[in-house]
């Protein structure tokens, strides 16, 4: 670990304790969504569209309902009245309730291959699946569009008759009063772009495309629901945000949130892909019809067909610089696919595109566009990997034309504290320069490349990280331990990171804090585990809980010693000190609380927006096999400002995981649709993700520039490491074989097509 500022000395923060949920997970005791069991439980299956775009003329469910063992069939009409246009906040994304309802069960049209049409509940899973074939759906097949540029044309088939373009761009010429596939046109402007380009000695302009990439979590979507006769709904599901699911269920099922309890099960990965609802409302409707709990889970094929990948994009980036390397102007055109319903991460991509650099004159123009594909979902720094791939690739080309070292060029233009971001707000304390300095001085960058067709590439990345609301409660036990109740789903070790911050605040050990994730009826409203917000926001709450406990413990000790509370102090070692050398340990005082007015229990709900932006810099060496087009990653170093590494092992793991996913985006992963708009590679066999033998050991360097907006200096760490890989790998391939690729993935097929003689 590298520290660029002398960190505070901590006892718990910065150590590597065993995770609290570790034993249950390695022994198989941990309960995931598909492990849910209930008395009288039925099993469900979902019928999905074979077409990319079609009108539903009729649905006849009578034969399916007559099949022995089938207890209910539901379609969109079972929702009752169509949901309104209210917005449901899903944490990293937001969606209109009516579109969300139509995505869960298609209403009058199917909009992509795999769109859910009907749900079945039966006494046996196989019966439910057999019943799907007995549902007779009559379709009128329509033309479809799955390319973002084609979808923007006036001649493109219209997906949503009620969709009109929302304009947030000063000079937009798009009409706002006619059906369209362009949901949003926005622009972010700073300075005078025309002036900036006129000042440039060198200008590079390029076009880019990125594909649809899936999060690739191991555990498929699942949901079990019981709609009780008293109107109460309980849902057991693997989700990144139990409260967001509750809000979405309330909007779609048209019941108050107080009638819904979401029980978050353990989650087998999410990366942003488990923020929305897919099966939960279907399971609830089936339960209401049958009076029984109903369990649903997706096949892997359904996961690929119908759950959100990230957006495919078309982009243009133009940047100008003076001979000394000073960036004078930059322009980005970003068109993001949203899938069948509005809501791509284009806005985040626009804010991140130029964030590593101080560019006085810049414009980012963005378009959110619907296509006949699955509704996109958040995927680890949603929007940023694409936009920063384009920008970083252009920066590398500028470095070559200016004959300036690519890291040195970045350092000359690096954002610093006070630099205005794309929307004109000054950055707080950030570590961009520290990251770039560490890249330039790292032994990897200074090492010699040997062999034929080998190359090296570099790139940096940015993510602003999230704040938002979190809630927790804590109770002091008579044995001196503290129970910590959390509302944040634990995906990457947040039980540990939050318990460690409470332990640090109280001067206890990690073993003294017992964290537990609970349902929505047992803790205050908590935003999603996403946006790299959980350790930051939940840590603020843990700190507040600890300070409340410290104050009450001080008052209880004063009561026992019969002195004024201002005569008692709470030590950072967890001991309570009074006059005349009186001292009690935390455990000793905990055992006497019942006699001093009752045991201590506290709670806190906080919204903090002092999150610290994060920067990452990557260096990659690779080799290209000209005969097969295969790229072998030889060495990879990921350097990142992590603020304060609460649990360094988890931080390193987050960085390594992000790099692995970014390598997949760069080299292998893509959705393949046929001429009828059907997904052809909906399996892990055919959707090629990196596996262990595709990767070297990924080296990590943790730069600690503490975030002044957090009591322990926390910055989110989980998302920015996925941002630099595509650009770093693109540059390394160019360095190896002299060919630049502007479309990802840079698969063996693409390499052979570009490099093989005609």
Outline the structure in words.
Among the domains are: 33-143 and 215-306, Aldehyde Oxidoreductase, domain 3, CATH 3.90.1170; 428-465 and 612-758, 2-Layer Sandwich (Aldehyde Oxidoreductase, domain 4), CATH 3.30.365; 467-607, Aldehyde Oxidoreductase, domain 4, CATH 3.30.365. It is built from 20 helices and 30 strands. A hairpin with a 5-residue loop joins β25 (576-577) and β26 (583-584). 27% of the residues lie in helices and 24% in strands. α18 packs across α19 (725-737). The radius of gyration is 27 Å and the shape is globular. The strands form 7 sheets. The chain has a 7-stranded mixed β-sheet with strand order 4-8-2-16-13-14-15. The protein is of the alpha+beta class and 758 residues long.
What key phrases describe this protein's structure?
758 residues; alpha+beta; globular; Aldehyde Oxidoreductase, domain 4; 20 helices; 6-stranded mixed β-sheet; 30 strands; Aldehyde Oxidoreductase, domain 3; 7-stranded mixed β-sheet
Task: Give a brief rundown of this model.
The protein is α+β, with helices and mostly antiparallel strands.
CATH homologous group name of the domain at 33-143 and 215-306: Aldehyde oxidase/xanthine dehydrogenase, a/b hammerhead
**Can you tell me the CATH class of the domain at 33-143 and 215-306?**
Alpha Beta
Low-confidence stretches: none
Q: Oligomeric status of the shown chains?
A: single chain
Helix- and strand-based class? alpha+beta
What spatial order of strands do you see in the largest sheet?
A: 4-8-2-16-13-14-15
Q: What is the tally of beta strands? A: 30
Task: Output mean pLDDT.
Answer: 96
- Helix fraction? 25-40%
* Main beta sheet strand tally, sense and closure: 7 strands, mixed
Radius of gyration: 27 Å
- The CATH topology of the domain at 33-143 and 215-306, please? Aldehyde Oxidoreductase, domain 3
Number of H- or I-type helical stretches: 20
Strand content: 15-25%
- Give me the CATH architecture of the domain at 33-143 and 215-306, please: Alpha-Beta Complex
- Outline, from the CA principal axes? globular
What distance separates the N and C termini?
50 Å
């Amino acid at each position: 670990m590298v520290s660029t500022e002398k960190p505070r000395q901590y006892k718990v923060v910065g150590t590597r304790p065993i995770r609290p949920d570790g034993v249950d997970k390695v022994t198989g005791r941990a309960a995931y969504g598909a492990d849910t069991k209930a008395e009288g439980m039925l099993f469900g299956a979902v019928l999905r569209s074979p077409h990319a775009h079609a009108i539903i003329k009729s649905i006849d469910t009578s034969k399916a309902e007559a099949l022995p063992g089938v207890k209910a069939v539901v379609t969109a009409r079972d929702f009752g009245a169509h949901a309104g246009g209210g917005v449901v906040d899903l944490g990293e994304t937001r969606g209109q309730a009516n579109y969300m309802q139509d995505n869960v069960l298609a209403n009058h049209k199917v909009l992509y291959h795999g769109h859910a049409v009907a749900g079945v509940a039966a006494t046996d899973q196989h019966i439910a699946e057999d019943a799907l074939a007995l549902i007779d759906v009559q379709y009128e097949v329509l033309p479809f569009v799955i390319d973002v540029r084609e979808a923007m044309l006036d001649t493109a088939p219209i997906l949503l008759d009620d969709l009109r373009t929302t304009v947030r761009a000063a000079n937009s010429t798009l009409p706002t009063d006619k059906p369209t596939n362009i949901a949003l046109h926005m622009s972010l402007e700073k300075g005078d772009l025309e002036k900036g380009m006129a000042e440039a000695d060198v200008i590079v302009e390029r076009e880019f495309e990125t594909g649809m990439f899936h999060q690739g979590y191991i555990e498929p979507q699942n949901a079990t629901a019981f709609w009780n006769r008293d109107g109460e709904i309980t849902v057991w599901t693997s989700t990144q945000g139990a409260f967001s699911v509750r809000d979405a269920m309330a909007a779609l099922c048209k019941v108050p949130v107080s009638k819904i309890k979401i029980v978050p099960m353990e989650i087998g990965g999410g990366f942003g892909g488990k923020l929305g609802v897919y099966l939960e409302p279907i399971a609830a409707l089936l339960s209401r019809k049958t009076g029984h709990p109903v369990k649903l889970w997706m096949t892997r094929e359904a996961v690929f067909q119908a759950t959100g990948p990230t957006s495919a994009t078309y982009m243009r980036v133009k940047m100008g610089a003076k001979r000394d390397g000073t960036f004078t102007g930059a322009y980005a055109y970003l068109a993001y696919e949203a899938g069948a319903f509005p809501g791509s991460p284009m806005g985040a991509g626009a804010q991140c595109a130029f964030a590593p650099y101080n560019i006085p004159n810049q414009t980012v123009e963005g378009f959110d566009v619907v296509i006949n594909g699955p509704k996109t979902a958040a995927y680890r720094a949603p929007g940023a990997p694409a936009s920063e791939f384009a920008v970083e690739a252009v920066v590398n080309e500028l470095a070559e034309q200016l004959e300036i070292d690519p890291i040195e060029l970045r350092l000359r233009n690096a954002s610093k504290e006070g630099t205005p971001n794309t929307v004109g707000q000054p950055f707080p304390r950030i570590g961009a320069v520290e990251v770039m300095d560490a890249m330039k001085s790292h032994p990897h960058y200074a090492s010699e490349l040997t062999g034929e067709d080998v190359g090296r590439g570099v790139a940096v990345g940015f993510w602003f990280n999230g704040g938002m609301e979190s809630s927790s409660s804590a109770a002091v036990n008579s044995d001196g331990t503290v129970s910590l109740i959390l509302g944040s789903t634990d995906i990457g070790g947040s039980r540990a990171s939050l318990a460690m911050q409470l332990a640090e605040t109280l001067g206890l050990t990690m073993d003294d804090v017992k964290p537990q994730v609970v349902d929505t009826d047992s803790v205050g409203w908590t935003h999603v585990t996403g946006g790299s917000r959980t350790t930051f926001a939940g840590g603020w709450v843990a700190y507040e809980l600890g300070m409340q406990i410290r104050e009450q413990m001080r008052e209880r000790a004063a009561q026992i010693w019969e002195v004024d509370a201002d005569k008692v102090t709470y030590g950072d070692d967890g001991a309570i000190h009074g006059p005349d050398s009186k001292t009690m340990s935390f455990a000793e005082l905990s055992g006497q609380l019942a006699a001093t007015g009752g045991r201590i229990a506290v709670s806190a709900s906080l919204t903090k927006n002092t999150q610290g932006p994060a920067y990452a810099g990557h260096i990659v060496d690779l080799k290209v096999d000209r005969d097969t087009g295969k790229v072998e990653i030889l060495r990879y170093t990921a350097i990142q400002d992590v603020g304060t590494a609460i649990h360094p092992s988890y931080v390193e793991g987050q960085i390594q995981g992000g790099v692995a996913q970014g390598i997949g985006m760069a080299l292998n992963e893509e959705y393949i649709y046929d001429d009828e708009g059907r997904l052809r590679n909906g399996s892990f066999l055919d959707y090629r993700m990196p596996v262990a033998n595709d990767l070297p050991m990924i080296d990590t360097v943790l730069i600690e520039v503490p975030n002044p907006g957090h009591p322990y200096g926390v910055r989110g760490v989980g998302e920015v490491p996925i941002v630099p890989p595509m650009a770093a790998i693109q540059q390394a391939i160019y360095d190896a074989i002299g060919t630049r690729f502007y479309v990802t993935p840079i698969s063996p097929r693409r390499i052979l097509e570009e490099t093989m003689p005609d």
